[in-house]
Amino acid sequence: METPGSQSSLHRANLERVVRAVRLSGSLTQAEIARSTGLSAATVSNIVRELRDNGTVQVTPTSSGGRRARSVALSGDVGIVVGVDFGHSHLRVAVGNLAHQVLAEQSEPIDVDASASQGFDRAEQLVAQLIESTGIGVDKVLGVGLGVPGPIDVESGAIGSTAILPGWSGINPRQELSDRLGMPVQVDNDANLGALGELVWGGGRGVRDLAYIKVASGVGAGLVIDGRIYRGPGGTAGEIGHITLDESGPVCRCGNRGCLETFTAARYTLELLRSSHGADLTVPRMVQYAREGDPGCRRVIADVGRHIGMGVASLCNLLNPSRVVLGGDLAEAGELVLAPIRESVARYAIPSAARQLSIVPGGLGARAEVLGALALVLSEMGDSTLLDGNAPAAVPALSAQRPA
Fold this sequence. Notes:
alpha/beta, five-stranded mixed sheet
C-alpha cells in the first residue's frame, strides 16, 4: 500500500499530473507538459516513456518553434466519449476520442420541447449509430456528456425550470439517458457546454476567465473562472437573460418584467419584423438580410447588441472576465452585433474592466455545445481510470466545486 510522501505515491502523482495535462489539452509536446505540470524535462521524458509502453499515450514526431519535438496524446485505444446536445429545435450527437478528435457527428431538426421521450428515443438511436460507425466497441465508451437548454439542478441533475422545457416536466435527463444507454452520463445546460467547447476548441482558447453568451430562444451565459465552469451552488449561475433592464417592460416567462431576454431572444425580436418580412422569418435569415443591407434587420440586430452589451457590462463589473464569446445564430452577424455590444460595454462598464475585455464571435458555431459535451466528460474524468488498466469506470456525479 502506498503511503503519503513515499516514492511510489510521488511517482503515481506525477503520472496523474502528466495524464491530466494531456487529457485536458488533447495533445502537448513534452516541453509543454513540463511547463504546465512544473515537472523537470527528464521526469516528463521518463513518465511519457512509461505511459507509451503501457499503451496510455501515443507519441508522434512534430515541430515546435521550428525545432523537432514529440507530440504526446492519449492513445486511441484508451477509450471514446460521446456528446449529446438537445436544443429547442435540434439534436446533435458526436463521438470523440481522448486526443480531442471528433470521430463521428450528426445533427437533425427535432421538436425537443414537445416530448422528452421522443427526443431521448432519437438520441439513443443516434448514439448507437455513431458509435457503430467508428468501428469502436461500446465497451470503450468512458462517458457521455449531455446538454439541455435549461438550468440544471447540481445535486439531482434534474431540469431546474419546467417553464423553459414544459414537455420535460418530471424528467431527470441524466438518469433517463444513462438508463437507456447503460453508460455514465454527465449533464449541464447548453450555455455552460458552449463555454467549455469554446474554451477547449474555439474562441476561448488561451484564456482562463471568460463568459460565453448564447442568444437563441432564450439568453444564457456560461461562466469560466480560473479555467473552470462556475455553476453556483444551485446550478443557475449565468442566467444573464433575467437581468432586469426595464421594470415596466414586457412580462418574461420567468414572471418578472423587462428581463434582458425580452429584448434580445428570438421569440421577441423576430416579432418586430414579421409584419414587414413575413411570419416564417428566422434568426439566420434575419442575419442574412442584415448582412445584405436590409435596414430593418440591421436596426433590430443593433438594438439587440446594445441590450446584450448592458448585460455584458454588468458581468464585467462583477466578474471582470478577459473575454466574452458570443454564440448562437446571432454571432453570424459579426460586427453588426459585436460593435453595438462593445459600445454598451464602453458606456456602462467600469473603464478598467472594459479596457481589458475582448468581445469575439464563437469559433465553433452550432457545434459549440456538442463539443462542450465531449469536453465535459474529458474534464470530469478521473485520471486513475486511464492508468488502471484503461477500463471504463463510472463518471462521478457533477459537482459545483470540483478540482481541475
